[in-house]
Each structure stands twice: as structure tokens, then as C-alpha cells.
Design a protein that fits this description.
The complex is a heterodimer of chains A (about 220) and B (about 220). Helix content of chain A is about 15%, strand content about 35%. Chain A has helices at about 20-30, 70-75, 120-130, and strands at about 20, 35-40, 45-55, 60-65, 80-90, 100-110, 115, 150-155, 160-165, 185-190, 195. In chain A, about 40% of the residues are buried. Chain A is mainly beta and about 220 residues long. Chain B has helices at about 25-35, 70-75, 120-135, 145-150, 175-180, 210-215, and strands at about 20, 35-40, 50-55, 55-60, 60-65, 80-95, 100-115, 155-160, 165-170, 185-195, 200. In chain B, strands 1, 2, 3, 4, 5, 6, 7, 8, 9 and 10 form a 10-stranded antiparallel β-sheet that branches. The model of chain B has no long low-confidence stretch (mean pLDDT about 90). The chains are: A mainly beta (about 220), B alpha+beta (about 220). At the A-B interface, β2, β3, β5, β6 and α3 of A face β2, β3, β6, β7 and α3 of B.
Chain lengths: ~220, ~220
């Protein structure tokens, strides 16, 4: 397994849960629908903003906006860290301190550049649409040139990154195993509800095949 | 509790300001429903740091499991400035144009000073609340922490006085030109549902599964 790319990506608490392989980090960034972007503002305070992301190779694209002042610091080259988390299972142990979750999280450190090349913008917009629901990117109308005025996309290399993963049953101490308390894991899934067509949808346009039906698993890239 | 939070320059919603929510009840409902949060602070070299962690709310205070951040936290006795983000995605909003795609979501951002919880009685309450955050009712069954366990775990607390929410819902809004496109548009709701519980391989035979596991749902979450 790969070593931590830097000291700050090294997992100190529960180091056995760390994974520094790029493929692991990539898979978490792909599966998590959203992420949180963090940076330090001009006053030295921490800032955080949720957004949507997509990955092309080892570049992470982040959706920003021109109106949110926060993104100006990122555009100006502030150091950022991005975190994405997927919760797989609740872990119910016999004691309250040993309760946990089975989860996969990825953290990426670096700086993000504003994407200005039209070809790259188009590829990133397509990747974000694919990230939301695979198949949609071939259906939705591609951006027009003036669409770029409001929206800002950032690109960030996935070089300094780490993943942290917990799997498996609760880890109670041997002396607690005898307690009369149920212990185990409860898997959680994200499923689709019943899709609703827009009230102003042109008549005769059927729901596309890539749209999951009610109760079906939400497809991830 | 009904007093709204006063938006500060950093909690005021600037992009789509009409989506900004500053009422405590609505902010608290989002925090209570979320299973985890992202906790950010400034590292020793002035760089941003973040971890996912679990949280629980008691009144106007947010408590977070902070063991991963504890070394930084202990170095700053007067409190560590933090930013906390919580995101709930309720659905995908499919527009005809790629650019108008969006999500129906509820997010909360909290800014404040994180302080370590040191009071024994308060810590015990936090343990109960955070255990119930996983599955409501669970704290009545699970063994409470021992003195040693209370010492080993770091919880931090942050006042919810500087917090804001952003709530986006409804159908996509598109220009007349885009409405004419032959592309499906609408909403796909998403929800988190439990699967089949899995017994611990070391479970004492005959221990029944409690109702809060077999009928698990998030507080405030729809059926």
C-alpha cells in the first residue's frame, strides 16, 4: 500500500484505517455526491462551503460561483482542502463509546485554479453532470458560451490526498461481550424516490432510461 | 431558541440569497437529521484542515467528536476557531440545459470557537445524545462510558449563535429558449434507507434486535 504523501495527510488516529492509494481516493470522490471545500480567509479563520465535484483522471473539478464571495479567495490561490464522505453502515456496539460508523472519506489538499479554457470547461461540466447521474451528460443541452459568466469551475490536482475507511463489526472489549445488548451493523443506502416531471415539461417527452425507479439504488459513476 | 441567528458577513448567503435561512428551528432540524458533519479548522502552519466527524445538538450548543483534532485543540486553550458544514441532499433537479442542473438540498454552516468539554456531567449527557443521534433510543440500552473512557474521548462544543442554512427546493427554472428543448426535466427525490441489520458475529445468542434498529429512520426524515 502507498505511504502518506505528506505529514498532514497521514492518519494519526486509527492509522489502520488509512489508505493512500489513488484508486481508493478516486472511488470515494466519485461516489460521494457532494463535498466540502475548506480554506483560510483573510482574517485567518477557517471557512467551509459544500459544493459538487467531479473527477477527470487525477484532476478534481469543483463547482463555484462568482456571487459567493468565498470563492474569490480560492480563485486568488488560497490553499484549500476538500473532504468527501460516504456513510456505509451504522455500527451499534454494546457500549456508547464504542459506537461508530462504517464510512469512507477522502481529503485532498492543494490549490485550485479557475478553469478558463472553453474545451476544459465543457469537459468539466460534462463530468459534473455524469457525476450527478451517469447517462445524463449525453442528454442535457451543452453549455452556451454566456453560461460561463455566472458559474465558476475550479480544477485541483489530486496529488496530496488520503482516504480513511472503517469496515466491519463493532469492536467491543472482551469484558463487554457478555452484556445483554444487541450489537451489529445497519447498512444504509441512498435510493431514488418517484421522479416528478417538471410542470412545464414539453408534452411527449418520456422519463429517460437512466433515471432510477422508486426504491432503486441511486447509481454512482 | 426562536431568536434567529444574526447573519454575519461569513454566514450571510450571497449566491441565491433568497435561499438563506437564519431561523434556529430550521437550522437545528437540519443538524439533527444529518448523520455526520465536516469540521474544518486552521492547522499549525496556517493551512486549512478538515475531518468528517459525528455531532449532536443539545439546545443551542453543537457537540462534536473531536479526537482526531485533539492535539490542535489542546494547544489553544481559549478555543479553536472552526467551521462546520452539514449537507443533506433531498433530490436531483434535472434541467434541460446542463448548466441549470441543481440539487434540492439543505446545508448548514456553523462558525465558532470549539472548546473541549471537560465537565463530567456534561460529557455524560453528550455521550447519551450522540449515541441517540445514531439510533434514537439507543442510549438507554448501551453501557454508559466508564471514568477511563470519559477521559480518553475528546468532545468539543460550539455555540450555534453564528450559523446559517441554505435550503433549495422545487423544480428547475429555465429560459424560454431552453423550455423548448426535447430533453426531460424534473426532480428525482433521494432518500437514505436502512438495509437488513447484520448481527455482530460475537453477539450473545438470543439477543433480540431492538425496534430502533429494525425500524430505523432519521429524526425528522420522512418515511
Amino acid at each position: 500500500m502507498a505511504d502518506a504523501p505528506s505529514d498532514r495527510t497521514r492518519v494519526h488516529r486509527h492509522p489502520e484505517r488509512a489508505d493512500y492509494d489513488a484508486a481508493t481516493v478516486h472511488a470515494i470522490l466519485d461516489e460521494a455526491l457532494t463535498c466540502t471545500v475548506c480554506w483560510v480567509d483573510a482574517d485567518g479563520g477557517p471557512r467551509a462551503l459544500p459544493t459538487i465535484q467531479a473527477r477527470i483522471g487525477d484532476i478534481l473539478y469543483l463547482h463555484g460561483s462568482r456571487a459567493a464571495r468565498a470563492w474569490k479567495a480560492v480563485a486568488a490561490g488560497a490553499e484549500v482542502c476538500v473532504v468527501a464522505t460516504v456513510v456505509d453502515e451504522l455500527v451499534l456496539a454494546r457500549t456508547s463509546p464504542t459506537h461508530s460508523m462504517n464510512y469512507r472519506s477522502a481529503v485532498v489538499y492543494g490549490r485550485a485554479r479557475e478553469v478558463s479554457d472553453i474545451a476544459e470547461l465543457r469537459a468539466a461540466a460534462k463530468a459534473i453532470t455524469h457525476h450527478v447521474l451517469p447517462g445524463r451528460e449525453d442528454d442535457a443541452a451543452e453549455p452556451q458560451d454566456d453560461d460561463w459568466r455566472e458559474t465558476l469551475l475550479f480544477a485541483m490536482p489530486i496529488e496530496e490526498a488520503s482516504a480513511k475507511i472503517r469496515t466491519g463489526p463493532p469492536m467491543d472489549d472482551p469484558e463487554d461481550l457478555d452484556l445483554d445488548v444487541w450489537a451489529g451493523t445497519l447498512p444504509l443506502r441512498t435510493v431514488a424516490g418517484t421522479s416528478a416531471p417538471a410542470p412545464d415539461l414539453k408534452p411527449g417527452i418520456p422519463a429517460p432510461g437512466y433515471l432510477p425507479r422508486n426504491g432503486q439504488e441511486f447509481p454512482r459513476p | 431558541m426562536s431568536e434567529p441567528t444574526a447573519p454575519t458577513p461569513r454566514t450571510r448567503i450571497r449566491r441565491l440569497p433568497e435561499l438563506g435561512v437564519y431561523e434556529r428551528e430550521r437550522i437545528y432540524a437540519i443538524l439533527d437529521e444529518a448523520l455526520y458533519c465536516h469540521l474544518a479548522w486552521v492547522g499549525p502552519d496556517g493551512d486549512p484542515r478538515v475531518i468528517p466527524t459525528i455531532h449532536t445538538r443539545i439546545g443551542d450548543t453543537l457537540y462534536l467528536h473531536g479526537s482526531s483534532a485533539s492535539s490542535t485543540l489542546r494547544a489553544i486553550k481559549q478555543g479553536l476557531p472552526v467551521a462546520i458544514a452539514v449537507t443533506l441532499v433531498d433530490g436531483i433537479r434535472f434541467a434541460r440545459s446542463m448548466f441549470e442542473h441543481s440539487m434540492n438540498y439543505r446545508t448548514v454552516i456553523v462558525y465558532g470557537l470549539a472548546q473541549e468539554v471537560t465537565d463530567r456531567e456534561e460529557l455524560t449527557k453528550v455521550f447519551d445524545a450522540i449515541t441517540d443521534q445514531v439510533a434514537p433510543g439507543r442510549s438507554a440500552d448501551a453501557r454508559p462510558p466508564t471514568e477511563e473512557e470519559l477521559r480518553q474521548t475528546t468532545f468539543v462544543k460550539v455555540s450555534l449563535d453564528e450559523a446559517s442554512a441554505k435550503v433549495s427546493e422545487g423544480f428547475p427554472e429555465e429560459s424560454d429558449a431552453d423550455l423548448a428543448l426535447d430533453v426531460w426535466a424534473g426532480i428525482l427525490p433521494l432518500r437514505t434507507v436502512p438495509g437488513e441489520p447484520l448481527d455482530d458475529p460475537l453477539l450473545k445468542p438470543g439477543t433480540p434486535r431492538p425496534g430502533y434498529v429494525t425500524d430505523w429512520r432519521r429524526p425528522g426524515a420522512g418515511a
